[in-house]
Design a protein that fits this description.
FAD binds at residues 52, 141-143, 310. By secondary structure, the chain is α/β, with parallel strands linked by helices. It has helices at 15-25, 42-46, 48-66, 81-104, 161-164, 181-192, 212-223, 318-334, 363-369, 385-389, 418-430, 435-439, 449-462; strands at residues 2-11, 31-35, 111-113, 116-120, 123-126, 130-139, 143-145, 158-159, 173-177, 196-200, 228-229, 234-240, 243-249, 255-260, 262-265, 269-271, 305-307, 347-350, 355-360, 374-380, 396-402, 408-415. Bound molecules: flavin-adenine dinucleotide and nicotinamide-adenine-dinucleotide.
Length: 480
């Protein structure tokens, strides 16, 4: 067996692995980045980017229909599924190519292709024919779709996110299992592109939403576009001649069978640690077999092994994978000098329409942290000036603050421009601003951020800090 000795071995050349590599490389030249699949990252290949490309097509179709509201008619709107999918793939390929370009700039000696497994705490075997002896190891192996067994009865009509982006044309109908982040984004986009969609969930959750008031609003809104049962009772999934027949309980109608071209499983993701022979790594594992690790150093116990990105199943988001790759890379490079790295305020955005955003602590975490001493401020966007002007007046924002300190703690939003409002809120939370300090910031008119101001004023009043918001506020224009 061929043998190599390095200071640091990184398993997985996704976002976390590539960022880790760049950090390690500043500290040692004896590093190897091992990739068992394709270069290009999950984000660019089958994740963030192609999903946003499909959503962009759907947004355009929807915006054209919205034209009627303004007296602007686009005539008959035609959706050419082949061209939609062609653009998704060609733009996706550009993103993937630019990642591959970066990888190819890494010296050959630093790159190895093959599937790595632990033979011992310091030894990896790659594809069974290369042995890598490493002083430190970073696990950055990402995650993959987790498909419950009964969905496999859909046989060749069962698809996951990876498959959708390879479609040459749009199908007529898709049953989406899992109204989580992927299911909502892809399901709504397909629906807006003319595909018949029905969504099935379990347990009642809608995306990452924790605040019941926002959840109920979002659920009602999505149901105006396509049927979404967040706690469905599915009796049977069967591959039939025309596609997949799904039998489910449907309210008063009782057991109902509906047939779809495809079944999309968007039922969560599982970390790629099960194929690593992790039992040979000499680290402590949790009940599910995932390594126990410190989220501030990414170190597994007191070992020389670090775990970053989706592989650690903690915050499966792109910017978190990059941050974790940076921290793990710095620490593996400078080991045994292991330091706490910068973790940022939690921030997540779901690119539905309206968008969903979560910032800082959830309402349940705020309740626990403040021992019940917190207040909520709220704004509806239904009558918010700018939102009405642009015909995007749907949604709610709820902001949470601590009694006494007046600190802003977190927020959830389902509404227009949530991706932007969420950044203002996350930056405020990270700077540990009080609600009063946030209200001292400038707000232009007429903008959606005026809705944020209304929610913050409501919160300050409920914290017994500010006055009650004035009816028809005089320092701001109409419809704030
Ligand atoms: C449909 C979809 C949409 C998404 N949209 C967003 C979004 O809008 N915003 C956002 O923030 N996040 C989004 N995400 C999440 C984001 O894509 C991930 O959090 C991020 O890509 C994880 O990066 P990573 O480096 O941990 O893993 P990856 O990029 O998956 O890298 C892991 C690498 O490890 C390799 N590997 C695995 N096992 C081995 C082994 N044993 N040996 C060698 N190599 C191995 C894999 O082949 C892979 O290349 C989305 C995800 C999906 C699926
Ligand atoms: N915009 C973004 O940032 C973005 C977009 C896509 C994905 N992601 C990341 O990828 C992760 C994975 O996304 P995901 O949507 O696969 O997972 P998820 O955990 O968000 O959602 C999974 C959903 O499937 C449901 N479910 C589980 N078993 C089911 C069953 N048998 N039948 C019906 N429903 C079932 C769950 O209740 C949940 O609602 C997300 O947590 C997120 O971090 C982020």
């Amino acid at each position: 067996m061929e043998k190599r000795t390095v200071d640091v071995a990184i398993i997985g050349a996704g976002t976390a692995g590539m960022v880790a590599y760049q950090r390690v490389r500043k500290l040692t030249d004896k590093v190897v980045l091992i990739e068992g699949g394709h270069y290009g990252t999950t984000c660019a290949r089958v994740g963030c980017m192609p999903s946003k490309l499909l959503i962009a097509a759907a947004d355009n179709a929807h915006q054209m229909q919205l034209g009627e509201l303004f007296g602007v008619s686009a005539g008959d709107i035609r959706i050419d599924g082949k061209r939609v999918m062609e653009r998704v793939r060609s733009e996706r390929d550009r993103f993937v190519a630019s990642v591959i370009d970066s990888v190819e700039k890494f010296p050959d000696a630093h790159r190895m292709e093959g599937h790595a497994r632990f033979a011992s705490p310091n030894r990896l075997v790659v594809d069974g024919n290369v042995e890598v002896e490493a002083g430190r190891i970073i696990i950055a192996t990402g995650s993959r779709p987790n498909v419950p067994g009964f969905l496999k009865d859909a046989k060749d009509r069962l698809v996951v996110n990876d498959d959708i982006f390879e479609w040459q044309d749009l199908p007529d109908s898709v049953a989406v299992f899992g109204p989580g982040v992927i299911g909502l984004e892809l399901g709504q986009a397909l629906s807006r592109l003319g595909v018949r969609v029905r969504m099935f969930g379990v347990g009642g959750s809608v995306g990452p939403i924790q605040d019941e008031t926002i959840r109920n609003y979002a659920l009602k809104t999505f149901n105006e576009e396509f049927p979404l049962d967040p706690d469905s009772d599915v009796k049977k999934v069967e591959r039939v001649e025309e596609g997949v027949a799904i039998t489910f309980e449907s309210g008063n109608a009782g057991a109902t069978t509906e047939t779809f071209d495809y079944l999309l499983a968007a039922t969560g993701r599982r970390p790629n640690v099960d194929g690593l022979d992790i039992q040979n790594a000499g680290i402590e594992l949790d009940k599910k077999g995932g390594p126990l690790f410190d989220p501030h150093t990414l170190r597994c116990g007191q070992s020389h092994i670090f775990i970053a990105g989706d592989a650690n199943n903690s915050l499966p988001l792109l910017h978190e994978a990059a941050d974790e790759g940076r921290i793990a890379g710095d620490n593996a490079g400078s080991y045994p000098d292991v330091r706490t790295g910068l973790r940022r305020t939690p921030l997540a955005v779901v690119f539905t329409d309206p968008q969903i955003a979560t910032v800082g602590l959830t309402i349940h975490q705020v309740d626990e942290r403040c021992r019940g001493c917190f207040a909520v401020g709220e704004v509806s966007f239904e009558d918010q000036g700018r939102s009405r002007v642009i015909g995007k007046n749907r949604g709610l924002l709820r902001v949470y603050g601590e009694h006494g300190s007046g600190l802003f703690m977190g927020a959830e939003m389902f509404g227009p421009a949530a991706e932007h409002i969420a950044h203002l809120l996350a930056w405020s939370a990270q700077r540990r601003l009080t609600v009063t300090e946030m209200l001292e910031m400038p707000f232009y008119h007429p903008v959606i951020e005026e809705g944020l101001r209304t929610a913050l004023k409501d919160l300050n009043r409920n914290l017994s800090i500010g006055p009650a918001p004035e009816e028809g506020c005089t320092d701001c224009g109409p419809g704030v």
